[in-house]
Amino acid sequence: MTIEEMKLGDCASVTKTVTETDVYLFAGITGDLNPAHTDEVSASQTRFGGRIAHGILGAGFISAVLGMKLPGPGTIYLGQELRFTKPVRIGDTITATCTVKELLPEKNIAKFETVCTNQRGDTVIIGMATTMPPRG
Fold it and tell me: Is the dihedral of CA 8, 14, 20, 25 positive or negative?
């Protein structure tokens, strides 16, 4: 979708259940083998009481929305501000939603509020993304 086709308030979402395989693959790809993500015994001693998914794994679902739905294929992801408000646990179903908050057509820039929630409706990630939508 081009910037001319977007309007304030447009939104799109993706939903994914985080699996054990997702966490281990992400750990292997990134090299982040932090025991908080990969070792149940160590993680059980943390304030979370068990393993949690990498924060950026959850944030990756935002990229899926922007790159595949709104604006969609051809979008360039320029920046992201994030706050991780609650842990994402293995088995959580995360919905990432992006809502158009600002359009700068003269610069071909679209800004989005980005929110990830779990199956209980808890906000786990919140932020703002800056993109360059595809041109028509």
Answer: negative
The answer as to whether 128 is a domain residue is yes
User: Helix count (H) and strand count (E) of the chain?
Assistant: 4, 5
DSSP string, 39-69: -HHHHTTSTTSS----HHHHHHHHHHHHHHT
Tens-digit pLDDT profile for residues 13-40: 999 999 999 999 999 999 999 999 999 9
Rg (CA), the chain: 16
Is residue 119 one of the residues assigned to a domain?
yes
Domains held by the chain: number: 1
Q: Is the pTM of this model over 0.85?
A: yes
Domain-embedded: residue 4: no
Note the pLDDT tens digit of each residue in 37-72.
999 999 999 999 999 999 999 999 999 999 999 999
Domain containing residue 64: 11-132
What CATH number is associated with residue 83?
3.10.129.10
Q: Are strands 76-84 and 93-104 parallel, antiparallel or unpaired?
A: unpaired
